[in-house]
Every structure is written in C-alpha cells, then in structure tokens.
Design brief:
Blueprint: E1 2-4, E2 8-13, H1 25-35, E3 39-44, E4 55-60, E5 70-75, E6 80-83, H2 87-91, H3 96-105, E7 109-110, H4 117-126, E8 136-138, H5 142-152, E9 154-159, E10 169-174, E11 177-185, E12 188-196, H6 198-207, E13 212-216, E14 222-223, E15 226-236, E16 242-251, E17 266-267, H7 270-279, H8 286-303, E18 309-316, E19 322-328, H9 338-357
Parallel strand pairs: 1-5, 2-3, 2-6, 6-7
Antiparallel strand pairs: 4-5, 8-13, 9-10, 9-13, 10-11, 11-12, 14-15, 15-16, 15-18, 16-17, 18-19
InterPro entries: ATP-grasp, YheC/D
Keywords: ATP-binding, Nucleotide-binding
Domain ATP-grasp: 123-357
C-alpha cells in the first residue's frame, strides 16, 4: 500500500469502500470539491481498522483528478472525518470506536449521533420550538392510547429509534373500534391492517418491542387525493452556516401510512407538486417549510457543534400550518437530483475545512 502524508486529510468513514477502480459518484464529487480547500480525501471502513495510527484507506492516485483511478493507501489519522456509514449500522454502534478515537485525538467528526424521535421532541421543547412538531406522548398503556384516540381520532404509533417507515402504525378510532394499518411491519414491505376492540388494542401494544411514541395524526395536504410530505435537506457550508440543499415532495400511495419510496411512496419535483397543488386551489408554503427547518437546524448546531447534515420530513397541514414529522440525521441521497448533489458535495467539503480551521 502507498504511504501518503502530505497535506490535510478529509477521511470519509463508510462501508462502501471499493477494492479497486473508482468509488461511487458522490465520493468523487466530494473529492473534487475538497481540492478547492486544499484537502485530500480518503475513504475507509471504520470497522476494518487494526491500528488507528495508520488507516487502511482508498484515495485518488492523483488528488487533482478524483474522477480518475483510486488505489489502496495507508494514511495517518485524518484531520477531519465525515462519518457516513449506513444508519442501521450507526444505530448499532458500528462507528463507536472511531468516534471515541476522534474524541481522544481532538479531531472533529461530523455528523455526531443525534437525538432519537422522543429525545428530539424533548429537545424541541427545551429550545421552545415544540410548536413545530405534532403533539407527541410516550406510549405507555392501552388506556392512555385510547384517550389519545378519543382526543385526536387518528394517531401514529412509531418507534423512537426507527427509520425507513418500519413499524410506523396509523390508528383511527371508528365507532368504538380501532383500525390499525402499517406499510412496513417488522421489516416486511407489505400492507398490514387490523380492526381491533379495546382488549385487542392492549394485545397490540404488548406485541411492540422497545420505546414507542404516540403522535397526533396530521391532516396532511393532499394532492391528487394523495398525502404529501416534504424532505427538506440542509447542510452547513465553508462558513459553518446552514444552506438549503433541496426540497423533495414525497407522495404516499393511496391510503398509505408513510411516504417512504420503499413503502410505495413517490418522489416528485417541487415545481411539479406546487403546480399540481395550485390547480386544485391549494398553496404550498415553501418559505415557511424552509424557515421552520432552518430554525430547528440552528438549534441543533448550538447543542451539537459538529452537526453538518440534516434532513427533515416536514408536513403542511390542510390549514396551512407547518410541522416537522421527524428528523433524518442521514437523509438518503437517492432523493436528490444532480444539482442538489453538487451543492451537497460542495457544502460537505467546505464544512470539513471550516471544522479544521475552527
């Protein structure tokens, strides 16, 4: 393996390190943008390192031509790290040893671990931003859940640490019985539906594992009869300031519980969605969506100084009010178009340089 010591290194922690050839397009975008800040980029798998003083990594043969060939290299510990392992691995602690080593060395690492859904609600309360989230309670007993249903008629029961729409249930109170529906339950991508009485509701709660939340069912904007939410992606730039990367509308399948693409949702462009909504006499408050997302991101960066990337699933209710459904600390790049990805890469490289200088 080659030995490269020159210059400042941006290390990207990922399990998607190729053995030869070139890495994925977005890593090459970051490497191109990094050269504008005199940074060199290497990719490394944090779970396959035998010695933190020498990383087994992958880097461009010519740092000025990241679209050319890459090769295995041996590098010192980077000057800044972008932690980009899959969210389920991050939740399981895959990057925990890397994070600990970065702290020990005083090396900035973005993104840090961010609050789960319940902790996020508490965080918003402390930041006096809880008006931007739907009313939320911890799931405790069947009686408490029944009272929530009587109060709101429709609720969402979701795991505090979940992702990808897995185990998100919509419950509706219908004439003394409860209709429950989920798009992805326990990892299966297929519709699950039950109609339950109060006794069966208690059994349903016992079937859930881990901490769950009960959230008021939002009266989501509908276009073409389909519920819509908006992925709002933000990243900090070379000045440490939040920039809008893009807004991506997602439409649920007919009677769908979530808008996730794997659960039957569909991605639209913002222009298409706004045009379709206008034809139905409905407005999309784009500025309010961005302002709400930026307010939450600013509060997060005060509490977590190295947070750089966030994606919010935002809702517009039928009355025009804006709410945050949930935060995605690792929003999927697959939702973003080419200009958004170029801006994202520029911000990631710029923010890395800002962290080093700071």
């Amino acid at each position: 393996m080659a030995n490269h010591q020159d210059g400042l290194w941006l290390g990207i922690a990922t399990t998607a390190v190729p053995r030869h050839g070139r890495p994925g397009a977005h890593y090459r975008r970051i490497a191109r943008a990094a050269r504008r800040h005199n940074l060199r980029v290497c990719l490394f798998d944090p779970g396959r390192q035998a010695d933190w003083s020498r990383l087994s990594a992958f880097a461009p043969v010519d740092p000025d031509r990241p679209d050319g060939e890459w090769k295995p290299v041996s590098v010192r510990f980077p000057d800044v790290i972008y932690e980009n392992v899959y969210v389920h691995l991050a939740v399981q602690g895959y990057s925990a040893p890397l994070r600990a080593e970065a702290r020990r060395r005083g090396v900035p690492l973005f993104n840090p671990m961010l609050p789960g859904k319940w902790q996020m609600i508490r965080f918003l309360q402390r930041a006096q931003l809880d008006h931007l989230a739907p009313e939320t309670e911890a799931l405790t007993t069947a009686e408490a859940l029944w009272r929530a249903l009587e109060r709101w008629r429709t609720v969402y029961v979701k795991p505090s640490g979940g992702y990808g729409g897995v185990n998100v249930h919509r419950l509706e109170l219908l004439d003394g019985r409860v209709r429950a529906r989920a798009d992805r339950r326990f990892g299966r991508v297929r519709t699950w539906e039950r109609v339950m009485d109060r006794a069966q509701l208690a059994s349903f709660i016992r079937s859930l594992r881990g901490r769950y939340l009960v959230q008021r069912g939002l009266r989501l904007l509908r276009v073409g009869g389909r519920k819509v939410d908006f992925r709002v992606v933000l990243h900090r730039d070379h000045r440490g300031e939040w920039q809008l990367i893009g807004i991506v509308p997602k439409l649920a399948a007919q009677d769908g519980v979530v808008t996730n693409l794997i659960a039957g949702g569909e991605r639209w462009t913002l222009a298409r969605l706004v045009s379709a909504a206008n034809r139905e006499g409905k407005d999309v408050p784009v500025e309010q969506l961005v302002k709400a997302a930026q307010s939450i991101a600013e509060a997060l960066s005060h509490r977590y100084p190295t947070v750089g990337l966030v994606g919010f699933d935002m809702a517009v209710e039928e009355d025009g009010s804006v709410r945050m459904i949930e935060m995605n600390p690792k929003p999927a790049r697959s939702l973003l178009d080419r200009p958004m990805l170029e801006k994202l890469a520029a911000c990631q490289a710029g923010f890395a340089h800002w962290l080093i200088r700071r």
